């Protein structure tokens, strides 16, 4: 059954109405003033535009900058679950709560919040959108926030620094290129992990996903990594999209 109802605290109320798939209209009310009203379709269109239409990385980052103020509420309303899945996989793979973790393309820090709540204490973030990074900073879950892209550049990060890198909803078209996997492998310690949580649809049915798997296979053949998990989990977006989880151990 689709979610519906009201989530309320002292000053804030979110109204969720059901539709065929999931929440269809959301009113976000603070101190009795409606500050946001959007349809589910508008939010999905915004995401589809970022993933499929914008032609440059600068354009993508600008689009996230513009989304900063309502990003978390909008994602909550759409039932965004990728950060929860990422955190679940971290707990399964890396039980050591002092592990040094990098949250790449951290956005506003939703995965960081989950990790912190699960007891992880040593988390950095990397995020190219200044406005999203500022939102992430306000959540007080990261030790360092690196303002940078994962692209053709070499990151200003030491080799073999991290026990784990998480990549939640960023190995996607128009975001991190599949070829950038090599740079993430470089910054992860031997026996450390790269945890990728992505949209099954793009992983399975899009040329992007095929390129990503090709990169993984090549690094596996070269004995640089082992792919230890590739599975689908429900709830990338609740009632709407399935996640594909990829776990890579660096050799
Ligand atoms: C769908 S959001 C996910 C954010 C966050 N991981 C989460 O789950 O809430 C995608 C993020 O990827 C970032 N991004 C896009 N391209 C990137 C790149 N080449 N390098 C690093 N980050 C990138 C965007 O700025 C945005 O924060």
List keywords for this structure.
251 residues; alpha/beta; Rossmann fold; 2 domains; seven-stranded mixed β-sheet; four-stranded antiparallel β-sheet; 9 helices; 11 strands; 31% strand; disordered N terminus; binds S-adenosylmethionine
How many helical elements? 9
The major beta sheet can be summarized as:
7 strands, mixed
Strand content: 25-35%
Q: Return residue spans where pLDDT drops below 50 for at least 5 consecutive residues.
A: 1-27, 32-37
Helix content range of the residues, please? 25-40%
Bound molecules: S-adenosylmethionine
Strand order of the largest sheet: 7-6-5-8-9-11-10
The number of domains is 2
- Overall shape: it is globular
Describe this structure in words.
The chain is α/β, with parallel strands linked by helices. It has 2 domains: 5-78, no CATH class; 82-250, Rossmann fold, CATH 3.40.50. It is 35% helix and 31% strand. The protein has a 7-stranded mixed sheet, with helices on both faces. A 4-stranded antiparallel sheet has the order 1-2-3-4. α4 (82-93) crosses α5 (110-117). It is globular, with a radius of gyration of 18 Å. The structure holds S-adenosylmethionine (SAM). Residues 57, 60-61, 64, 82-83, 105-107, 110-111, 127-129, 132, 149-151, 168-170, 175-176 line the site of S-adenosylmethionine. It comes from Saccoglossus kowalevskii. Residues 101-192 form the Methyltransferase domain. InterPro entries: Methyltransf_25 (IPR041698), SAM-dependent_MTases_sf (IPR029063). This is Williams-Beuren syndrome chromosomal region 27 protein-like.
